[in-house]
Automatic annotation (TrEMBL):
This is Terpene synthase. GO terms for molecular function: metal ion binding; terpene synthase activity. Keywords: Lyase, Magnesium, Metal-binding. It is an enzyme of class 4 (lyase). It comes from Colletotrichum orbiculare (strain 104-T / ATCC 96160 / CBS 514.97 / LARS 414 / MAFF 240422) (Cucumber anthracnose fungus). Belongs to the terpene synthase family. Its EC number is 4.2.3.-. GO terms for biological process: isoprenoid biosynthetic process. InterPro entries: Isoprenoid_synthase_dom_sf, Terpene_cyclase-like_2. Its cofactor is Mg(2+). Signal peptide: none annotated. It comes from the Eukaryota.
Amino acid sequence: MGSQILEPQTMADILRGQTIHVPDLLGIFRGWPVMANAHYDDIASVVEGAFDRLCKSPTMREKYRRANYARFVSLYYPHPNWDRIPTLALYITWLFCWDDAIDQQGSKLSSNLLHAQSNRAHTLRVLEQVLNIAPFANSLVEYDEVDAELETIGEQLQKFYTFEQRRVYMAHMRTYIENCDKEQSYRLEGTLPDLESYKEMRHGTAAVWTLCALIEYGLGENMPEHVRYMAEVQTLWSETSRAIWITNDILSLKKEIPQSSSTTESIINAIPILVSECGVSPQQAVETLLRELVVSVATFEKAAAILLEAVGQERREWMQTYCDACRCMVTGSIQFTYESTRYGLAGCLNEDGSLSMVL
């Protein structure tokens, strides 16, 4: 994996104060649905209860409540009936808490790589156990308050998923966690990966593949086996992930720039990498990413058309819903980012749906 030495303070100074203009991102995904689950109030109760158990800091709990992660769940999984929603809501809540425990500046794991690596290794052991795919099933692992939520999630997935489906989910969880380790290492070293290495890493840290692996659970019906292993299914997941991490990198850059003018940590984001590697302005970096989004949409739609043909008339409606479930993750991610206090975009949105962000 390539990396380049970059002075973090210099990059922060280059970005800080720049104005980024972003067109209406939902316009790039024209025709893709924006939907919300009908069970929002019930989702909110599940999410609130999970945050009460997972987060001991009253300040952080209040921050999470203001960010409205129940809205995130409802936008990401608009199709599932209520019986499937609590598990999905628990997983997403756990994901935010687990990620923030390492990613939030000032946390005890954020600046201690060895401690964070130990935490990640423990989480992987817990996941293998609760999904019942551990190599040594009798070697019980103790749960901390964050990982304990995974037991409930694992019980549900054991009930409704085959061993192979659980194995796939675990593989993507491992990819997510291992890439979080790479990202933290770059951040603490004050270095950046090269662009291609970053893209590969970002597919992991976005955790979108793990969310896609739960779509069948949410819909309550499995994909036809002759379709499951078609390359186009992986293309759907890959392009869903690509669209989400690109739009997230653009929209979250404002909150990622450190307030301190003496930072030693890198801003791990595609825009500073493009600025450094290609010698472009931040605005030009955004435009490069927008062009990649257009390609991503076309690639997704081509794969979706092939899958709709492959399932036959009997399962065509279900396959259309499956493809829409992926599309809703993309549009839901954008919509949530616009609305949530987590990203601080209030005041940046223009009447035509575009954004003007002062970094």
